[in-house]
Amino acid sequence: MSDWVGVALFLVVGLVFGAGGLLTSFLIHPRSKNKYKLETYECGLPTEGPSWIRFKTQYFTYALMFVIFDVEVIYLYPWAVSFENLGFAGLVKMFIFIFILVLGLWYAWKEGALEWK
Amino acid sequence: MDNVYSLLAFVLLAGMILGSALLVVTLRNLVHSVLWLIVMFIGVAGTFLLLNADFVAAVQVLVYAGAVCIMLVFGVMLVQRPNMEHSNPINWRFKLAAPLVGGLFIVIGLLTAKSQLVVSGQEVPAQTVQALAPILLNDFVIPFEVAAILLTVALTGALLLVKEVKANGNGS
Amino acid sequence: MGTALNPSYFMVLSAALFAIGLYGALSRKNAIAVLISIEIMLTAVNINLVAINKFLTPEAFIGQIFAIFVITVAAAEVGLGLAIIIAIYRNRHTVDLDDFNWMKW
Hints:
The complex is a heterotrimer. Chain A has helices at 3-28, 58-81, 83-110. Chain A contains 3 helices and no strands. The longest helix of chain A is centred in the last third of the chain and has 28 residues, at 83-110. Chain B has a domain at 1-93: Up-down Bundle (Four Helix Bundle (Hemerythrin (Met), subunit A)), CATH 1.20.120. Chain B is built from 6 helices and no strands. In chain B, helix 1 packs antiparallel against helix 2 and helix 2 packs antiparallel against helix 3. The termini of chain B are far apart. By secondary structure, chain C is mainly alpha-helical. The termini of chain C are far apart. Classes of the chains: A mainly alpha, B mainly alpha, C mainly alpha. Chains in contact: A-B, A-C, B-C. At the A-B interface, helix 1, helix 2 and helix 3 of A face helix 1, helix 3, helix 5 and helix 6 of B. Chain B: It holds the Pfam family Oxidored_q3.
């Protein structure tokens, strides 16, 4: 339990550090209120249209691939940590696991999910 | 003395988890909901640390807070209309859902209070990852390989769904 | 009982989290919000599994293995669910679950 006291301390220091900067800047920054301050480009052209555009589906495809192989890593990690105890049988099992996932990667590659069109 | 700190940590984490979970299900703006969901997942990872499950805590942060929330934000980006303020309306069923859910919580609480749990009193071994690996690769080898099939099927299925839509659904 | 942590604390926390997730799943209109609520419910189950692993069978580690499998299934479920929602949105231009009624008769 006491190992995590350091982590908790780090968390507290990080929060104080971040919040302290924001608070100091809030306390000492100069204020001027007019409607031009709130525009996107204060000295530029007025903006037209909404800023919330539709994004490409590629974003979702990339995130999906990231999630799937992120989950693969959580299975690889315990195997890698105790690699020597598991021996050859563990290696074979893990290669079957990776082979099945590489099939999915091959399909994604074939379908062009890795390209940014 | 250690017990007091554990209890304090538990109370703080429980407050963090339940508060952010309540915000997730009640906020009107869906993007804010997803951001509070990340806070909730980190609180749950802290709870796992409290329960001596450090590998599961790392997995929780890595997969949920790191990857699943990114994917949810991208999903929100892809399907939302401009007005984010009202992107997450509640339907008429919330009046029905509130007493139902309250009743469920009371029932589970009463059952928990009544149940006699045999606490083993032993400590969790310090090296959790080294203990997890043989169980995962020997006793649970079939679910382990099935997990790979599940991930592959989810990947191909999701790509197929998004792909098919891109082929014939662009005009509207 | 004193101040020592007790499995029932974690079970009550998990039950409360599950109830919140169920409330979200029942009361939201947006399909992505319902997916998020399902994630909350799965996380509540994970808390229960890991707590029982610690307090009841600390040597066996079955609860932690199950939690890892639940996380895997949850990641796959979110991926597929979002793909289905994006596909429906492209065809129907809505993510409102009350409009997803064309399989009713």
